[in-house]
Write a structure and sequence with these properties.
mainly beta, 13 strands, 4% helix, 66% strand
């Protein structure tokens, strides 16, 4: 908590308007159909942030969240965005989250955490996705990633992986492989676009 307060206190940079969209393709993984997870977000110059997610918390669930970004650009750049909102579909209730990023030179770390609480369904779950990357050139990066998922009365599930990505202007195309050294390995392909003004 103290670290977050220090970040907020040092929050002195002028923010840019930013908007973007991410779509991730998950193969069928034994199911009949593959899955698409998507997110659309907008952050105004006043740093208020909003996003809509589909299939992030759980299949067939849509969630809308709002929050505020606290960021600073410099030798070490960071952004922290706490969010809260509502979800509907298979999970119906409240959602809380934290998006964060930290970068220094060619290295960057990002993490997105979502917690869904559905009192009427007696369900809750926690999902997080973290990445550590190295920008190898203007068009290429590589790194490691970790997904963590836990649900009410179930043990947490950890999924380590590796990734690489191609950057083409405002477009990024990441490719992930999870459980790379096991027979449970699977791939995830993303298409992301980010606009800044």
């Amino acid at each position: 908590m103290l670290i977050i307060l220090l970040f907020i206190y040092g929050d002195a940079a002028v923010a840019q308007e930013e908007k973007g969209a991410d779509v991730y393709y998950y193969p069928g993984n034994g199911a009949l159909w593959p899955s698409l997870s998507s997110r659309v977000f907008y952050q105004g110059s006043s740093r208020w942030y909003g996003e809509v997610r589909y299939n992030y918390e759980e299949e067939g669930t849509i969630a809308c969240s709002v929050g505020r970004t606290f960021s600073k650009e410099g030798r070490w750049s960071y952004a922290i965005t706490p969010v809260a909102g509502l979800s509907g579909g298979r999970l119906q209730g409240a959602s809380f989250g934290l998006n964060s990023s930290l970068s220094h030179n060619a290295f960057s770390f990002s993490s997105s955490m979502q917690y869904g609480l559905c009192p009427g369904q007696h369900k809750s779950n926690l999902f997080s996705w973290s990445e550590l990357n190295c920008q190898l050139s203007d068009q290429f990066y590589a790194g490691v990633t970790m997904q963590q998922w836990s649900s009410y009365q179930l043990d947490p599930k950890w999924e380590p992986g590796m990734q690489m990505g191609i950057c083409l202007g405002s477009w990024t195309i990441p490719l992930y492989i999870f459980h790379p050294s096991s027979n449970q390995r699977y791939f995830v392909l993303g298409v992301c676009r980010d606009w800044k003004r």
